[in-house]
Write a structure and sequence with these properties.
extended; Double Stranded RNA Binding Domain; Putative secreted protein; 6-stranded mixed β-sheet; 183 residues
Length: 183
């Protein structure tokens, strides 16, 4: 018959495990998990003014502003605020919106088109320092150019509005991705 462990030994063993576990948690404290660790930590608020629209499609600026606000709130640790004195300001301008015919049938009816939207964006802190830089093609320009195409097929019931909205949402996703901290 094996000896029964004493109550004091079990308590001491549990205490030792608790101390080791607590030490592991404290040792991991500076590390951050999740997508919040991808973004600069010294920023809390972002002001996104209504986006200027230089095209004839009148509501693109408002729709992109809404998409950007949702994307920032969803993916970043930042709070979008109406206060122009926020920690940072994300300024954008829709500079072009086009529709290109890709294919036609024998009767010259359009079968597939591309809806394209181009946006210029600049993200700066309250002191005017740029926070978003073009890492692929460095230029002296203070803005980064983003362009997005979305294909749609009218015969399949797809519309230019749906394609443009998808392009705006993809642009918002790409702009927020550029807000990530550089390694």
């Amino acid at each position: 018959m094996s000896p029964r462990p004493r109550r004091g030994n079990t308590t001491a063993l549990l205490s030792l495990f608790a101390i080791i576990f607590a030490g592991c948690l404290v040792g991991c404290a500076p590390y951050q998990l999740g997508s919040a660790s991808l973004f600069p930590q010294n920023i809390r608020t972002v002001h996104v003014p209504i986006i200027r629209n230089a095209t004839f499609c009148e509501d693109l600026g408002v729709r992109l502003t809404e998409a950007l606000t949702k994307e920032i709130e969803l993916r970043t640790p930042y709070k979008v605020t109406a206060d122009p004195l926020a920690d940072t300001v994300l300024r954008c301008e829709v500079i072009d919106e086009t529709k290109r015919v890709l294919t036609e049938n024998d009767a010259d009816y359009v079968r597939a088109l591309d809806a394209a939207v181009q946006v210029r964006a600049s993200w700066s802190d309250r002191h005017g320092r740029l926070l978003m830089k073009n890492s692929i093609v460095p230029t002296d320009d203070l803005t980064i150019l983003f362009s997005q195409d979305e294909r749609f097929v009218p015969e399949a019931g797809q519309s230019i509005d749906t394609a443009t909205q998808k392009a705006l949402e993809d642009l918002a996703d790409r702009i927020v991705s550029q807000m990530e901290a550089r390694w």
